[in-house]
Amino acid sequence: MRKKVSGLVTETRGDLSIHALTVTGILAGMAALVAVLDNAPTSAVVWLIVALVIDGIDGPIARKWLSNSEVPRFDGYILDLVIDYVTCVIVPAAFMWQFDIVSHGNLGKIAIASVIGSSALWFSQNDIESSDHYFRGFPAAWNMVIPTLWLLDAGVSVNISVTLLLSVLTLSNIEFAHTIKVERLRKINVSAMAVWVIAVLVMSFQTSDVNFIEKLILLIGPLAVAGITADRAMQQHRALRVSLL
User: Fold this and answer.
1) Could you tell me which of 88, 63, 208 has the C-alpha nearest to residue 139?
2) What's the pLDDT tens digit per position in 165-178?
3) Which of 47, 111, 176, 241 could form a disulfide with 31 if both were Cys (CB 3.0 to 4.6 A apart)?
């Protein structure tokens, strides 16, 4: 009997440790939000990247092991989603407004509302990920999109257009690859994401405008995502044609 109790205590402590790791993501998100409110965009980007790294480490753990945790009061999957919504959606939305990525008129408010609303619907899906780890719809990765738009400085009209387009894609059935879990084109996906994250982090420290070459480097990540998404769509189209033959 003692062994069983001891094992339960050990496992419970392990689960709580993983929950604690997950919660550090909200601390990074809070630091990013404070940086936004303090008008410090570089610090905000740094903390968003920290939150992204924490999520990359703990997200798969929480989703795999904590859904039926020995700590029944806390569901690791839901905890991960709540923190992701703050760090991937709420903080970037505040960043959009504070640093003039969108206009401060009604159109800008609509753009921000589309980000917050479409993302809330996306996170509430009960079929958020396919069996082979493709997300249904754009996975609300605004923590990478918004800093990229800030660095590209393409203008408010372009920023709002991109925001509205991605918000529509968030609610679509188009499938986007999970960076780590999807085996097909994984090396390209991981490499492009790594370049994208590093580029955003490094360029956010620049005091001068991002030059043309640097903007091309920044676009490696988004272009890779678009290419892999198109590859998935073509796969599905070929599979449909074969099934109809």
Assistant:
1) 88
2) 999 999 999 999 99
3) 47
